Amino acid sequence: MTIIDHIERAQSTLFSFELLPPIKGHNLETIFDAINPLLEFSPAYINVTYHREEVVYRTDEAGRTVPRILRRRPGTVGISAAIQTRYGIDVVPHLVCGGFNRWETEDALIDLDFLGIENVLAIRGDADKITGRFTPKQDGHTHAIELVQQVADLNKGHYLDEALEVRTPTRFCIGVAGYPEKHAESPNPQHDLQHLKAKVDAGAQYIVTQMFFDNKAYFRFVDSCRQAGITVPIIPGIKPLSVKEHLSMLPKTFAVQLPSELVTEVERCQSNAQVRQVGIEWAIAQAKELRSAGVPSIHFYTMGKSDNIAAIARGVY
Fold first, then answer.
1. Residue ranges per domain, the chain?
2. Element (H, E) at 122
3. Splitting the chain (317 residues) into consecutive groups of 10 residues, what average pLDDT does each group show?
4. pTM of the entire structure?
């Protein structure tokens, strides 16, 4: 079932969450261990992130520091298939521009289609950690809108190989990311909104937001989208604070603002266990208000840990 189908059939706010593939060397049980505590809340769908390759530096036998290209968290397609097979829950694998050319993207989409996976989230992906710039693979996509266009084209039966005699259309429901406080690389919110509108016009059917900690930011964002002519569902994304380092790390990494009341509460904490409880309580209050406002779904960013998400869901659903 597509995300749009879930939203249209729902009688109340849906529950969904996002998982990270395990670090290479770990097995699939780490994923199942994260999912199992959340099954009681009947998740409508589960997102699985994708991580492009990284450059790491290792010392060789001669003592020289040499670069190595590796992927720390592979397996998005396999994990998505395993979740859907084991639990019968719809999955939303992420597609990223970084690390793929257009042909590899098409092959990944064909694999997903063969597996009966009907949903994808199309995003550009992170910039290079060293340079701070995003560089696409040769013949790859530079922006998420190009990825949206490729998926939308495949849904129409437009394959890259023009010599194909049979061109069966795919049926992907396409989601994209939205930023209530603007993308970190965008010069201003209006510029960011124009790019979001272009992605929707290109074929995106719903939006899931970056994390935010003040619901006013989400409501302002929705109002701005509607005024700009964006009518697709806008799903709020929530991430609970869990460690004190989040006070500095999250604003720097995701360009989000933390309300002063939340910062004060976290700074009073004597341990990360206390921070985690503050994060749970804050997220419960956020989610309750969002649910009362009739949002279509609330999407939780787990970062691979689900005990705090279960506590939040228990207080909301």
1. 3-316
2. strand 119-123
3. 97 96 86 96 96 68 68 84 97 92 96 97 80 81 96 97 94 97 86 96 98 97 98 98 94 92 96 96 98 98 91 97
4. 0.92
